[in-house]
Amino acid sequence: MADDIRLREWVSDQLHELLGYSLSAVVSFVIGLAKKAPSSKELALQLFQNNFKVSESTEKFAEELYCQVPHKRVGLNNYQKAEKDAADFARKQQEYKLLDADDEEDEAAATPAYQTPAKHKQLRKRKQEQDDDKESDEV
């Protein structure tokens, strides 16, 4: 905020030296031109087109002003960034291809890595049957 006020005062003083007058509307206009200008030379050209005197002092003013003003960055907005990211992602996905399945891998995947031996299952069944038989004998 304080920098903006100082900048406006500086531009006002410079305009008074260059044009002989300084209005707040002209100060705002010149600062707006400087923010949008891609270079100090382009700013000087725009000032010349708006009836500033063609002189070294005007060019020097344009250079100094261009250095002091924050410039508008021309970039992608959020929607354009998201759209670009989605396009990049889709392009990357197209590079991937499905792998052909090998028969050996299918057989290995079908059989579990750990199989319980059949004896253990039979032993449990036999023990349960024997326990059931003892209970029925006791009754």
Return Rg in Å. Answer: 41 Å
Number of DSSP helical runs: 7
| Total count of strands | 0
Characterize the main sheet.
Answer: none
What low-confidence regions span 5 or more consecutive residues with pLDDT below 50?
A: none
Could you give the order of the helices and strands? HHHHHHH
N-to-C CA distance: 98 Å
Helix/strand structural class: mainly alpha
The global form is rod-shaped
- Estimate the strand proportion: under 5%
Output mean pLDDT. Answer: 80
Question: Roughly what percent helix?
Answer: over 70%
Could you list some keywords that capture this structure?
7 helices, rod-shaped, mainly alpha, 139 residues, 73% helix
Question: What do you see in this structure?
Answer:
The chain contains seven helices and no strands. With 139 residues, it is mainly alpha-helical. It has helices spanning 2-19, 24-36, 40-49, 56-68, 78-95, 103-110, 118-138. Helix 1 (2-19) crosses helix 2 (24-36). The longest helix is centred in the C-terminal third of the chain and has 21 residues, at 118-138. The mean pLDDT is 80. 73% of the residues lie in helices and 0% in strands. The protein has a domain at 2-68.
